[in-house]
Amino acid sequence: MLVFATDLDRTIIFSKSFLPAGCADVTLVERKQSESIAYMTGAARGLLKKLARIITVVPVTTRNREEYDRISVLQEIDYKYCILNNGGRIYINGTEDPTWKEIIARKTAALGKTYDQILQEFLKVFGSDELRRYKLSGDLLWVLSVKDYFPADRLECFRQYAKDYGWNVAATGKKIYLLPLFINKRAAVVYLQNTYLADVRLVSAGDSILDQDMVTGADIGFIPRHGDIAGLKRSNVFTTVNTGLPAGEEILENVMAMAGRKEGCLIGDDTF
């Protein structure tokens, strides 16, 4: 059985900043009140809906439930599993998996620093002047929006400090995530495989450092060329030729091709 576990934002759905000039084949897939938020190509939307009918599609995202439920295309497809909050929550037919919830709660209670403490440590080191805003998303991860890119060396220093207390620090563009090391997409996908999806061939896609373990740990992984981890050298990982919306379409095209191949294997170098 083929399973496609895919990140959403900047992998198969995209903000308006990614809209290609003069492209007529664009469809809106997320709206927040009156604001248009995310898009796909029409072809990509059709491919996703078809894939969900013939293989197991698992959306995997850092979004919380409220943000996730805004994505209209996901209301149009038939899927059983989804992973939210960067792996902190797993839903089966719309209901949160109680065993995974208990595992996360138990590990959270054993953290070396609490959620409030790790945020205060971050603010002590970096201050608050460079922050636009921050929020505790789904009570599972801090999401900090910054005014400008933070120096990589300073972030790496804090990352090493935080790691000793069980915390991860991940920067993706102008967002910084503070989250426990055990809340990660790969761990949630492995739990899903071991509990519900035995003997599957796993295909995964993602663009950011938060997706890296999920992508490299799959049988086949895809990274859009604009992604933070694009060009990652692994024998099982491929970078798209295209960027932006066409990259999302390209990933879905390749997964569709795999769905029609008995072995689920692709042949190539690092691109398609």
Query: What gyration radius follows from the Cα positions, in whole Å?
Result: 18 Å
**Helical segment count:** 8
Share of helix, binned: 25-40%
Q: What's the arrangement of strands in the largest beta sheet? A: 4-1-12-13-14
Count structural domains: 2
Structure description:
The chain has 272 residues and is an alpha/beta fold. The chain has two domains: 2-88 and 183-259, HAD superfamily/HAD-like (Rossmann fold, 3-Layer(aba) Sandwich); 111-180, Hypothetical Protein Ta0175, Chain: A, domain 2, CATH 3.90.1070. The protein has eight helices and 14 strands. The strands form four sheets. It has a five-stranded parallel sheet with strand order 4-1-12-13-14. Helix 1 (42-54) runs parallel beside helix 8 (244-259). The longest helix has 16 residues, at 244-259. Mean pLDDT is 93; it is low at 262-272.
List the helices and strands and how they pair.
Elements lengths: L1 E5 L19 E7 L2 E7 H13 L1 E4 L5 H4 L12 E4 L4 E4 L2 E2 L1 H12 L5 H12 L4 E7 L3 E6 L5 H12 L3 E6 L2 E6 L4 H12 L4 E5 L6 H5 L3 E4 L13 E3 L4 H16 L13
Parallel strand pairs: 1-4, 1-12, 12-13, 13-14
Antiparallel strand pairs: 2-3, 5-6, 6-7, 8-9, 9-11, 10-11
Helix pairs in contact: 1-8
